[in-house]
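Risk mitigation, structural track. In case the binding assays with flavin-adenine dinucleotide fail to produce interpretable data, a predicted complex structure has been prepared as a fallback.
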Amino acid sequence: MAETIYDVAIIGSGPAGYTAAIRAGEFGLKTALIESSGALGGTCLHVGCIPTKALLFHAEVWDHLKHGADYGIDGVTQPVLNWQQGLKRKNAIIAKHVKGLEFLMRKNKVNTIEGYGRLTGPAKDGIHTVSIYTEGGGGAAGEQSFIKAKNVIVATGSQAKMLPGLEADTRILTNIEILSIPALPKSLVVIGAGAVGVEFASIFRSFGTEVSIIEFLPRLVPVEDEEISKELTRQFKKRAIDINTGARVEKVEKTTDGVRVTFTDQNGKSQVKEADKVLIAVGRSPRTDNIDIDKTKIELDRGFIKTNEWMETAEPGIYAIGDIVAGMPQLAHSGSMAGMVAVAKIAGKHFRPINRLRIPGCTYTEPQIGSVGLTETAAKEKGHEVKIGKFPFAGNSKATIVDSHDGFVKIVSDAKYGEILGVHIIGPSATEIIAEAVVAMDLEGTVDELMYTIHAHPTLSESMLDAYGAVEGLAINA
Ligand code: FAD
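Fallback model:
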């Protein structure tokens, strides 16, 4: 039988890889998807976006129950937490979506291959060879095989960085271990206040855990607009989360039954926090060190793969997408869009490159954060004369109805033509409302146009209308 030559072989089945595979199938390309972990879905589905959002939803329900009496619902003011049941539901959601992905692969005639994929070098006569090593599961352990493909997409994702000298276990946790801890800890130290760190802080605080955050940079969620960081800090403090920014961790040790974290605070003083567990959330490193990149011309930047705007690497016929790409945010939706771009390029279909300034950033804490485009500081640094519009959720009737009227919408616009340079939201459903800002910016809407775009009443998105109006000093509800 003639050897199969795939149009595209994709290494890694996270959101970047599985989206690329589905789109390739939709275009009628002969596609192979290689995955080493035994299940489709990657970090996002198994130990990232989906399980954390499931737990954040449980936390939100729990927080609402605490106010049951205010809503006229008696008998729920003393709810009892069943942590194990929460984990069970989270796992059921993951399992359902793994099945969904398997179905989509069959539907789109994608051949899924279990094993660890490695590059073998440049193409020969336009055909690449990918080596696949099987560790067990679907195939015999230790078997090596090869597949051939005209194009290869590398989508091997990322893993949690560890602090030097530490190893994850039952008390020193990364995003993987913390999502399966058998019982709620009484106390937790979170090292790192990016999206991952603050989301876990929010979940566990809702359930009653004493939470301390230690962050090296001077503020929480350092990539966000400064006013957003300030508001998150204010609201986290209201929730009695202990916040230590500008702090350098010196030592993490295990005590008899917990952990001790020693750090230098922002005033240069040595401090100690003891807790049941510590979560290390100090960033994610790309999985590019064990796939034989050095056999190719692929260029790296601190371990991340350099690509052009079509996601092509320096090695002809090899593309890279997702968390491993240099200069892209490590977010599921930017990885999956990169997958669609790469496959469209391979298939010769219409597409457009990703605009880095149109990728929404979402943090699903209580309160939520949604943002897109330039922060106020970045806009000024780029030489824009900015005009700011800010509208507090306190003036939005739906926010009062859903009992969540802290926070605001902030519009950063260019003073000259009213171009929207950035939108920053902290408050209820911020991660949903931000979508309208992304579309508006993508279609190059101006403040003038958006302040006359009708928004339904009463909705949280009406706060956008007021914020656009606020740029011209014309908010109605503030
Ligand atoms: P991954 O999802 O990491 O998938 C890579 C896959 O490749 C894995 O299945 C791995 O087993 C496989 N693989 C690796 N090497 C090989 C090999 N050599 N051969 C075969 N298979 C291989 N992003 C959001 O947008 N929204 C969120 O709410 C969000 N929440 C998050 C919460 C947490 C706790 C974490 C840790 C991350 C979160 N992220 C979120 C980030 C998101 O998970 C990642 O951006 C996304 O998973 C990256 O997708 P990817 O396809 O590049 O890689």
